[in-house]
Amino acid sequence: MPRLTLNPLPAYEQVKAFVKTQISCGHWRPGDAVPSEAALQQQFGLSRMTINRAVKELAVEGLVTRIQGSGTVVAQLHRISSTLAIRDIHEEVLERGHEHSVHLDRLETVRANLALAQTFKLRQGAKVFHSVLVHHEDGVAIQIEDRYVNPAAAPKYLSADFSSTTPTRYLLEHAPLTEASYSIEASLPSAHEAQCLGIQASDPCLVMTRSTVSGAHVASWVRLVYPGTRYSFSGKFQL
Amino acid sequence: MPRLTLNPLPAYEQVKAFVKTQISCGHWRPGDAVPSEAALQQQFGLSRMTINRAVKELAVEGLVTRIQGSGTVVAQLHRISSTLAIRDIHEEVLERGHEHSVHLDRLETVRANLALAQTFKLRQGAKVFHSVLVHHEDGVAIQIEDRYVNPAAAPKYLSADFSSTTPTRYLLEHAPLTEASYSIEASLPSAHEAQCLGIQASDPCLVMTRSTVSGAHVASWVRLVYPGTRYSFSGKFQL
DNA sequence: CAGTGGTCTAGACCACCGA
DNA sequence: CGGTGGTCTAGACCACTGG
Fold first, then answer.
1. What is the pLDDT of residues A13-56, one digit of tens each?
2. Which nucleotides of C are covered by protein (CB under 7 A)?
3. Which of A138, A222, A238, B3 gets the highest tally of CB atoms within 10 A of its CB?
4. Closest of B80, B130, B54 to residue A81, by C-alpha
5. Which of A92, A178, A207, A229 to mutate to test the interface with B (most CBs of B within 10 A)?
6. Range 110-169 of A in CB contact (< 8 A) with B
7. How many domains does chain A have?
8. Domain membership flag for residue A235
């Protein structure tokens, strides 16, 4: 069975495209059964492994749901995911073709209060590193990065040169990431934050708080404050 | 080579776990080369297809980068994605074990102004549907859903019963989703919005605007306003 | 029980990269 | 050119689901 090699699109992509078309045109509706692998194998004249790859990838993308022993159905709600990445703001700004600069507001060792101690699973009063940086895009403040770092995860954090690297990059390089959780909310800036950002204390801000785990340690806890009028998270999903 | 079937974990998962461990413990650093498929095949005594599947999935997850003809390397920044889903707020509230209720504030046909006409690619003055609902969680207002709908995509939108379904669900069922884009920002509520949510006009809100495409039509444009003090988007990633 | 998806093999040919 | 990943096959055995 010498398959023509002039095929512009891989066979499994053609199968995926077929299924996607049936779904997006409404021919197959959420809850409807998708033909079994055997049926698709017949229809396309492909081996089962190829059919399996196509349908499996559609399941990963959230378009269909597979249940072993039962079958494949069109997913109920199209679970469409956007990539909210842990990115280096330095690179993000450069990618937009703008200039990135940073002001180091604070770099110190502090004693953990109760909340910090719980976050890092340390005893109260333990030493943790603290840094505050203000990031600018073409000279305009767009982010305050208020960060606490676990000395056990990055012992030399205080001697890093934050004019040539960013805390995000430094930590990604020195404390490999294994886990992270974040939360995005809206709130008003503190007086000091408003001053750093050059905005009114009544101007709403986007605040992302994030904590990261590296191996056995909670490595870092950070509060990122963005002026609401100058920054937004946006994304796009596509079937 | 009769592989023992008592294996608790699939072979490809074991390969993935091995690679993940090397990365997360810092043994292999970003930019380092990952052993070739042939090498891993030797090391694990598995067929190439199985090795290929393991490494391919790691590439999809963003942990490694593969270049045909060149090789596989550990990815530069761990591209960690959270699932920001188009979800039905009804289900979201129920999942938290709370009660969901809704107040229908407005349901009408309006004439498109310039901005709406551009959004929907209709002529100015064309009819579009407009609905405003306030969603409550255990009696507390948590979201205003201010939505415009293209009649071409959902002609009977006005006659839907929004006490038994939600606009999100109705549209997902009647206008299959093919594309969506969103933006999240922080801003202050309008006077009317503040009143609906029972908050001060000076209380910051999270605002998500989203437009969805169904087939050939821009189906819907929606502005979701969340009280910043009662709602946050959160998520978690794991290596 | 028959039908489904989940996994795996031992080959194969191809496209691409770098030396 | 040899080594890499990208794709594909024609089988196979297994675990799970449902009637």
1. 999 999 999 988 889 988 899 999 999 999 999 999 999 999 99
2. 2-18
3. A222
4. B80
5. A178
6. none
7. 2
8. no
